[in-house]
UniProtKB/TrEMBL annotation:
Protein name per Swiss-Prot or TrEMBL: Claudin
Organism: Pelobates cultripes
PROSITE patterns named among the record's database cross-references: CLAUDIN
Family membership noted in the UniProt record: Belongs to the claudin family.
Keywords, alphabetical: Cell junction, Cell membrane, Membrane, Tight junction, Transmembrane, Transmembrane helix
Membrane topology summary: Multi-pass membrane protein
Transmembrane segments: 7-26, 73-95, 116-140, 160-183
UniProt subcellular location: Cell junction, Tight junction; Cell membrane
InterPro entries membership: Claudin, Claudin_CS, PMP22/EMP/MP20/Claudin
GO cellular component: bicellular tight junction; plasma membrane
Length: 223
């Protein structure tokens, strides 16, 4: 049962890591549609790396962000969290492979392999949480700007990459949890063949013998 749970958890976490990478590379973290007239309209969208504009006439253009230091702090933090998430996911994939019971690589001790799988599961959970924080933070900022009546810039809506990131983080956390649940503690070793003997103290027989001897000597002296 634990082997099947390990395989299911590893596949789910691996899929989650790949989906997180797709989310990071996705173009539409936030999007906005601007209507010019009845015929022409344009779609403006951004991700963590660039801003793009697509006209209904077919004209398409993108511009990368010039300087990282000129970006808003939350965008820089989301970049770092997503990159950390992917790096942790790759480390967890390699580590969990050595902990799977069906993989005859590494240690042959099931308890040791279980501890390796447990470590991989914890790293998968951490990777999923990093992605979850980044995507949720970005979505919260987009939503706050959209409903802020004092915000004079372009009002965006949440893009498809955010939903992809949520799905990837959910799979990574769930798969890592399955890997952690597959770990079983090592049973306590009990000594077999140990028995308890109830026997009188060595001096008890001697004491009883001495008392009998003293009694017989006293009776003879009386006679």
């Amino acid at each position: 049962m634990s082997a099947a749970l390990q395989i299911v958890g590893f596949l789910m976490a691996l899929a989650g890591t790949l989906i997180i990478a797709v989310s990071l590379a996705g173009d539409r973290w936030k999007t906005s549609t601007q209507h010019g007239n009845v015929i022409t309209s344009s779609v403006v969208y951004e991700n963590l790396w660039k801003s793009c504009s697509e006209q209904s006439t077919g004209i398409f253009s993108c511009k990368s962000f010039d300087s990282m230091l000129s970006l808003q702090a939350f965008v820089q933090a989301c970049r770092a969290l997503m990159i950390i998430s992917i790096i942790l996911g790759l480390i967890a994939c390699i580590l969990s492979l050595f902990g799977l019971k069906c993989i005859k690589v590494g240690s042959s001790d099931e308890y040791a392999k279980g501890k390796i799988a447990l470590g991989g599961g914890l790293i998968f959970i951490t990777a999923g949480l990093c992605c979850l924080v980044a995507v949720s933070w970005y979505a919260a900022r987009v939503t706050a700007q959209f409903f802020d009546p004092l915000y004079l810039g372009t009002k965006y809506e949440m893009g498809s990459a955010l939903y992809i990131g949520w799905a990837g983080s959910f799979l990574a956390v769930l798969g890592g949890s399955f890997l952690c649940c597959s770990f079983k503690k090592k049973p306590k070793s009990t000594k077999k063949g140990g028995y308890k003997y109830n026997y009188p103290a060595p001096d008890n027989d001697f004491t009883q013998f001495k008392e009998r001897k003293d009694t017989s000597v006293a009776s003879k002296a009386y006679v």
